[in-house]
Each structure stands twice: as structure tokens, then as C-alpha cells.
Amino acid sequence: MTTGEPAARFRDLLAAEWLKLWSLRSTPWAYLVTALAVIGFNVGQAYDTYRYWTDENAGDADAFIRDGIPLAEAFTSNAVMIHLLAAGAIGAATVVGEYGTGLIRTTFAAVPDRRAVMAAKVAVLAGVTTVFGALVAFVSFFSTQAILSGRDIGVSLGHPGALRVVLASALITPVAALTGMALGTLLRHMGSTLVATVVALLVLPMVVSPDRYWSVLIAHCLPYPAWRRLTEPGAHFGPYPWSEGGAWTVYAVWALAAAAITVFSVNRRDQ
Q1: Average confidence (pLDDT) over 92-104
Q2: Top-confidence residue, 162 or 212
Q3: For 229-247, what is each residue's pLDDT tens digit?
Q4: Residue 74: which of 130, 156, 174 has the closest Cα?
Q5: Measured distance between the N- and C-terminal CA atoms of the chain, rounded to whole angstroms
Q6: Given CB 3.0 to 4.6 Å as the disulfide criterion, which of 31, 50, 238, 250 pairs with 210?
Q7: 194: closest CA among 175, 172, 179?
Q8: What is the pTM assigned to this prediction?
Q9: pLDDT given at position 112
Q10: Ramachandran sector of residue 152 (left: φ over 0; alpha: ψ -120 to 50; beta: rest)
Q11: CB distance 122 to 178 below 8 Å
């Protein structure tokens, strides 16, 4: 009987965090607006290609597909930037909101094991954002390719690299959300957390140079460049290229590090 109690208790924490997440009216709207914005950007790009593709371009269809442009339009850079920002904000709000209202104090009073509480938050957020990211990525892929197929320039999920693009675009969501949650746990203020999240996920990748070794080392440790490496295998990344395995490693390290910060930092700080 005693061996089953910890697991049962953690299940209770998961259930509590799930209820807290969806009890906020803003939660469904945040996910819905993010999905519409991201998919809308991608569909708009695909529609522009469809609209301006003429019979004169028909001979370029093979080159268009060979160059990976249909995959690039399945999940565009502008869309992923919105996705990163929104997911980071959602992750931050998950924990910062509780600190702001004082609900976290009540939770810790009821459950003194702070690490278990934060681990439950991490698990719920990671699970929800992974499913959400997968839904957005797959809907975006099939929608854009359906549009491009009207000009015979769409590709299927079995096309070389297509599944990798979808998975990379889906899994960047929990990475960004967990990053926002970790920063929120450390800073505990929405404004400063959002600024830190934007800097970490969007600003740093823009200021690093692909031609300087130390700058490239920084770039190769960031989620957005990792997403580009996975979704743009034919792109030129300067004199210091990196592998797909390295890009996937960046995803894993950021997610695990963010989860660890969220779980273990609370024991070292007063709520």
C-alpha cells in the first residue's frame, strides 16, 4: 500500500494542475488565437504561391519541389516566430499568474512538496503544448500542401524531409513553453519574463553572426536556429555547419534544462 501512495498523490497533482489550467477563460482563447495566427500565416504564403503561379511556371515545378519550397511554406519563419512568442507567453503565464494572485502560496501550504507541485505543472504544460504543437503543425502542413497541389507543386507527408519538418515545428512548441515557464519561475513578473523570453527565443538568434566561430557556437545552442537546421536542410549556414542530431539535441537540452529549473529552483527561494 505504501508503495502506491506517491504515484497516486502525483496523479492528484496532475489532475489539479489540469483543472487550474483549463479553469482560466483565457487558456482556450490563447491556444485558439495562436493556432489561427500560425496556420493563417502559412496558408497565406501558400495561397500567394498558388495565386501567382502561372502556366509559364509549370516547367519549374520539379525544381520548386526539389528545392524544398513546399516544405518551407508548410511552416514559415514568420509563423514559427509567432509560435515561439505565443508558446513562451503561455508557459510564463502558467506560473507567473499564480505568483501574482498568491495562489501558489495556498498550493504550497496544502502540498509542502514544492518540487512535486512544479513537476506536475511541467508535465501538464509539456503534454498540452506537445499535442497543441502537433495539431497546428499537421493542420498547417496538410492545408498548405492541399493549396499547392492545385498547381501540382504540393508534396505528401511521405516526401523526403516532410515528416522532419512537421515534427520539428510541433516540438518547438513545448520547448518554448517550458522556457517561458522556467523564466517565469525565476523572475515571477510577467513583464520581465516576457522580455527575457523574447530575448532568449527570438532576439539572440537574430544578433549572432554565422561567420564568427564563437557567435556560431551560441547560435548552435538556440532553439530557433535548431528549428531552421531541421526544416531547411538545404540552406547555407556559413562556414560552420551542424548536424540534424545536434539540432535535435538542442531541443532536448532546452526542454530538460527548463523543466529542471522550474522544478528545483522553488526549493531555494521563498514563495
Answers
A1: 89
A2: 162
A3: 999 866 656 677 788 999 9
A4: 156
A5: 33
A6: 238
A7: 179
A8: 0.91
A9: 83
A10: left
A11: yes
Three-class SS of 8-60: HHHHHHHHHHHHHHHHCCHHHHHHHHHHHHHHHHHHHHHHHHHHHCCHHHHHH
Nearest to 58 by CA among 155, 162, 150, 161: 150
From CA 215, how far away is CA 227, in angstroms rounded? 17
In angstroms, the CA 132 to CA 137 distance is: 9
* DSSP code string of the chain: -GGGHHHHHHHHHHHHHHHHHHHSTHHHHHHHHHHHHHHHHHHHHHHHHHHH--GGGGGGHHHHHHTTHHHHHHS-HHHHHHHHHHHHHHHHHHHHHHHHHTHHHHHHHH---HHHHHHHHHHHHHHHHHHHHHHHHHHHHHHHHHHHHTTT----TTSTTHHHHHHHHHHHHHHHHHHHHHHHHHH--HHHHHHHHHIIIIIHHHHS-TTSHHHHHHHTTSHHHHHHHHH-TTS--TTS---HHHHHHHHHHHHHHHHHHHHHHGGGS--
- Alpha-carbon span 253 to 223, nearest angstrom: 10
Q: Let me know the angle formed at the C-alpha of 120 by 253 and 38, rounded to the nearest 5 degrees.
A: 60
**Phi/psi at 236 (nearest 5 deg)?**
-90, 120
pLDDT digits (tens, 9 = 90+) for 127-144: 999 999 999 999 999 999
Distance of alpha carbon 65 from the chain centroid: 26
Q: How far is CA 38 from the centre of its chain?
A: 12
Q: How many CA atoms lie within 13 A of 86 on its CB side?
A: 24
